[in-house]
Amino acid sequence: MLDRQVDAHAVGFASPRRVVQYESHVTACIVIPALDAEASLGGVIDELRRELPTSDIVVVDDGSRDRTAHVARERACLVRVHARNLGKGAALRTGFLEAARRGHTVALTVDADGQHPADEAKRVLLADADDATFVLGVRALERDGAPRKNVVSNGISNFFLSKFAGRPLHDTQCGLRRYPIERTLSLGARGTGYEFEAEVLLRAVWAGVPVVELPIRVLYPEDRVTHFRIKRDVTRIIGAVVSASLEHVVGRA
Predict the structure, then answer these.
(1) What is the pLDDT of residues 22-38, one digit of tens each?
(2) In terms of CB atoms within 10 Å, which of 24, 110, 146, 208 comes out highest?
(3) What is the β-pairing status of strands 18-20 and 5-7?
């Protein structure tokens, strides 16, 4: 379990649950997948340290060509480096394996581009007292000024995943999430890119993992750098969902 529990109405799309307040022996870990994030990563880490000072931070440098790994090491993060770019899903898996090796049961994932405020990350981490629960940040994309392509791609992903999951899913691409590490690694998600986040969510729903959706605020600064490519990555998301669904149907036959 995560730690000491207190009553709070923190969850937006599910019934109110109990949230966690931390003491010094938490088993949560922050995982940051990063690609060419030298300009933004330092600020992300510094803000997280202020909000969650007792949490370990694992930065996975996914084949960066800049000083991403150096920035993370300067701030005493544990750094794992992919020699070449393998994709966000591969970076998350590397982070989860490292977190599990270090004895953590929960991984809070935060993007390296600065779009996830540290106080919102803390809310996601504390949103449910059961460390077996999968917590999803749910963005209000249009309200927070997301680029039109993000709104469209997320809508497409939400539509397909909700159909295959058999329940509404309000934000299937948000990178601010809390994963139950052992259960997540056991789901068998194969995606290596952005499709991993959609696939692992779908597999979690099928496996009966409790899923809580928490409305969050995000930032979209003008100089934000994204590696998401709408045509390539939406196609990969749909392909991963269809492939996983066929596997799921065959497995139930």
Answers:
(1) 443 446 899 999 999 99
(2) 110
(3) antiparallel
